[in-house]
Amino acid sequence: MKRIELHGPEDVRLVEVDDPTPGPRDAVVGVAACGICGSDLGYIKLGGLAGPTGQPMPLGHELAGVVEAVGEEVEGFAPGARVTVNPLGGGVNIGNGGTEGGFAQRLLVRNAADGKSLFEIPDSMPFEIGALAEPLGVGMNAVDKTGAQPGEKIVVFGAGPIGLAAVATLRHRGFNDVVSIDLSDHRLGLARELGARETLNAGEIDVWQHLEKLHGREVFYGIPVVGSDAWIEASGAPVIPDIIANARPGARLSVVALHRQEVPVNFMLVMMKELQITGAIEYPDDYTQSLDVLRETDVSPMVTHRFPLERFDEALGVARDPKVAGKVVIEPR
To answer: 124: domain range?
Structure first.
């Protein structure tokens, strides 16, 4: 079968490997859809999870497909079941430094018998939507970390797939005052489709002035601040110091973007404003919460491009261009 492997910085190869055979606790899934994640782009740039290791690294962790085989200890699933996969379930790291990756025609899901890896999706759900369970879970976890309450005013920096997932989660939960900020008008259009009340292009306007108009202006020791209740940083841009400077007292900030460089933090302001800053990674404890949103909310605008496995290099080029891409999906089968 064919799969994508990373062999070094910017060295991505489509290779032939043996078809997987499940052990007693494993399952084999025929991959129908697998999304390209921002972390995949980071791995490719670095040449591995944190750099080259001398061993190829299979890529792909946002996936859905059809169960083809199960080991004798796997219960609740049989060949033909339509599933999405938690890539970190069962103690494995699919597409994140482990021995398997989702950009493949077939995927060995190790330790599926643990019950934390495979989740059935309905026949009515397209596989590309089922594959969004993973990034949606990341965005949902970022929302959870803010402790957002009904009626609060939320700002989401970044309208890439994770920022869009946060917006979709907030809409599903009934939040009506969500502002999305990005540099791409295309992605901001997707944010509006997914439920953002307002969108701001940070390359064209002063976002802080506009946020004051949208969420109100407060004064803190003579300094004007924005009345937003919670912030989600999903852009990776150097905005955290500005959020701290402009946030009102008691505001909360959830950081879900990858900031590979050190970020200066004014802890005097953090202390004086009693701000809460929380990191967010992975998913809610209950992975099925993502599936609830996928069943009950139209998130199809997130998926903007689809490519076969053989055109993976072309797909990467699109995924790297925020002016045109939302979620780029590979269809290996």
So the answer is: 2-132+299-331
CA distance 112 to 134: 17
- Two structure tokens written together for 258: 């990858």
Q: Which two tokens stand for residue 166?
A: 């946060």
103 and 42 inside one domain = yes
- For residue 302, CA distances in Å to 2, 43, 284 come to 27, 22, 20
Alpha-carbon gap, residue 307 to 333, rounded angstroms = 11
- 8 A C-beta contact, residue 251 and residue 147: no
Same domain, 256 and 195: yes
Q: Which pLDDT tens digit goes with each residue over 137-161? A: 999 999 999 999 999 999 999 999 9
pLDDT given for residue 333 in this prediction: 83
CATH number at residue 256: 3.40.50.720
Under 8 Å between Cβ of 244 and 98? no
Distance CA 29, CA 83 (A): 8
